[in-house]
Amino acid sequence: MNTEKYIVLRSQDVFSPTRGSTGMRGAGMRSTGDTSVKLEEADLTKRERNDLRRDPRTRAIALPMPLKLIAPVRRQMTDTVIPPTADQTITWGVKAVRAHESRFDGTGVTVAVLDSGIDPNHPAFAGVNLLQQNFTREDPNDLDGHGTHCAGTIFGQDVNGTRIGIARHIERALIGKVLGEGGGTSATLAKAIQWALHEGAHVISMSVGIDFPGYVDWLVKTEGMHVNPATSMALEEYRANVNLFTELASFVQAFSSVGQGTIIVAASGNESNRPQYEIAVAPPAAGTGIIAVGALGESDKGFTVAEFSNNQTDIAAPGVDILSAEAGSDKLTRMDGTSMATPHAAGVAVLWAQRQLEVNGRVENQSLMAQLVASGTYASLAPNSEEDDVGTGIVQAPLN
Predict the structure, then answer these.
(1) To the nearest 10°, the Cα dihedral for 146, 366, 393, 272?
(2) Tens-digit pLDDT profile for residues 327-360
């Protein structure tokens, strides 16, 4: 029989034996009232797929789609760091979200960065407990530089007197390498989200996206399909994968009631080309329950939406000319992209999570999402900024 590999997300009832139990499910067993989910990849026949779709315990079923870095629109290597002032040089992004004014620094909070890995030897990460998990088949460290740059913005230490990090006193960071030179899939990312959740992440930062054009191209070139049915098939799997990440986000929210609260922050994508056209937020950020981040740049009229930034975002953050850690060296580098905006938002979320820990003793999913989104402001944005482009505005760190 012909089979295809699918991602399956299913609810799992938890049962315990009653007196006189035979050990059989449904015979002498009672439900504890608790549920969990099981995520797996399985080779399924057409009949098995249809049976699973009819099973009420099936939350999502989808073909793994190609995953790609939401690649920076621009990279500019920096041989020397901007000379510090008498006080300290602070990147414009850190200032724009007011992290330098906040009394919060990330103490007690765990963050996960699901990306291309990290360069653990960069001085920006000195003293941070890095728990690395490699979901690829290549070197566990960062060979691209993307993940290192993103991590530097969230929790990087000062480099040669320059502040690049928002939450500089994070003591524990989870680094999931979900993409390598051979690419990755949505199945890899789904597994990494589950890993980060069970490792205690309060904030999960993802600057990756599903490669829809690449999937269509693969169907045409490898499977020999005409572009029209290939596009239709890709759209169906695109929809199924959006549902997968929506259901995963729902599970993350439910987990908050029994474990630590966790939120997911993801890049909206760089496919727009303003003012010619705008593209809507791409998955996984398109999933309900995931905070989609748009990118902003500086101008003499205030912060403006970046020309590449996708719309229908929830919030916005600095994403143009962002200075952060450069993999393979002890220097810094500049990048543009919603990938760079996302760690700014994730870093601010870490500060809000710390505030919750201090006030309530725990982090709660829905209230942390609400606080992060509500922190957005239009006050520093250029006039006539549209909600569809920037959501509630540029995120702001808690000050007290």
Answers:
(1) 50
(2) 999 999 999 999 999 999 999 999 999 999 999 9
Determine the 3-state secondary structure of 67 from DSSP: strand
111 close to 118: Cβ distance less than 8 angstroms: no
Domains of the chain, by residue range, sit at: 4-62, 66-390
Catalytically annotated residues: 115, 146, 339
Cβ pair 152, 333 in contact under 8 A: no
DSSP at 369: H
DSSP-assigned letter for residue 45: -
| H helix intervals, the chain | 46-54, 92-96, 146-155, 186-198, 212-221, 227-255, 338-360, 365-374, 387-390
* Beta bridge partners of residue 176, listed in sequence order: 114, 133
Rounded to two decimals, what is the model's pTM? Answer: 0.90
The answer to whether residues 31 and 15 touch, using CB atoms and an 8 Å cutoff, is yes
Contact 342, 293 (CB under 8 A): yes
Q: How many helices (H) and strands (E) does the chain have?
A: 9, 19
Residues 6+ apart with CB under 8 A from 382: 299, 301, 302, 303, 304
Reduced to 3 states (helix: H, G, I; strand: E, B; else coil), residue 213 is helix
CATH class of the region 66-390: alpha beta
DSSP state of 156: P
* Residue closest to 164 by CA, chosen among 324, 296, 332: 324
The set of residues, in sequence order, having a beta carbon less than 8 Å from that of 218 and lying 6+ positions away, is 66
pLDDT, one tens digit per residue, over 188-215 is 999 999 999 999 999 999 999 888 888 8
Contact between 104 and 168 under an 8 Å Cβ cutoff? The reply is no
**Would you say how long the chain is, in residues?**
400
